[in-house]
Amino acid sequence: MANFPRYITENYEIYEWRHASAVLETDYPREWQDILDVLSEFRLPRSQIVVGGGNWSPIARALDSGFTARGWRERAFRTQIVVDDESFDSPTHKVDCYKSNVAIEIEWNNKDPFFDRDLNNFRLLFELRAVSVGVIITRCDELQAIFNGLGKGRSYGNSTTHMSKLLPRLEGGGGGGCPVLVFGIKASLYCPEF
Predict the structure, then answer these.
(1) Residues whose CB is less than 8 angstroms from the CB of residue 107 and which lie 6 or more positions away in sequence, other chains included
(2) How far is residue 92 from each of residues 4, 40, 161, 175, measured CA to CA in Å?
């Protein structure tokens, strides 16, 4: 595992598959620094939890805008399989943030099958050499106590995206050979006064 700054290890649960942090730190140092910078700047304000988010929560938007400010873009890929002279579309799902063969998915409060979609997408794009490493930013299970205390526990239920829903999928090979790095947002980033 790469050398993570202390702030990152104190405020994020980190899990990696197939030496993802080493790939990032060695082969993609600028993108690696972007990831560390965005995560270091991120806070979890109470006001963004209680307001809800509809299709795109303010929390996911805050993370996304941190990457966008550093030149990351949402990216869709057109892929095909060619057999002899016949082409077949092989659609993939767009990734939230993409830069220089690094793909990031922000899964704050979606239904947990989104993890299957993300990992399968990383696997396919890795096999096609469009992605060298995938990153997923989600939340730690420990945040549920905060949500419950704010009366938002039902909005952030057991069937939504959080670490204990992701790790079994990743350990079960859901990402195939693609190196994947996961950051789970810890309760230490919660700001009750904002």
Answers:
(1) 114, 115, 118, 136, 137, 138, 161, 166
(2) 31, 30, 20, 14
CA angle 86, 88, 90 (to 5 degrees): 155
CA 192 to chain centre: 24
Lowest mean pLDDT among 12-21, 46-55, 142-151: 46-55
| 3-class DSSP state of 113 | helix
* Cα–Cα distance for residue pair 119/51, rounded to 1 Å: 29
Q: φ, ψ for residue 94 (rounded to 5)?
A: -65, 155
For the 6-189 domain, the top CATH level (class) is alpha beta
The distance in angstroms from the start CA to the end CA of the chain is: 34
Both structure tokens of 11: 């405020």
Domain chopping of the chain, boundaries: 6-189
Nearest to 68 by CA among 34, 20, 32, 23: 34
Question: Tokens standing for 165?
Answer: 């829903």
CA nearest neighbour of 108 among 38, 165, 179, 149: 165
Report the predicted TM-score, pTM, of the whole model to 2 decimal places: 0.93
Helix (H) or strand (E) holding 190: strand 190-191
Whole-angstrom distance, CA of residue 165 vs CA of residue 156:
13
Rounded CA Rg of the chain:
17
Tokens 């949402």 — which residue? 74
In this predicted structure, what is the pLDDT of residue 52?
Answer: 62
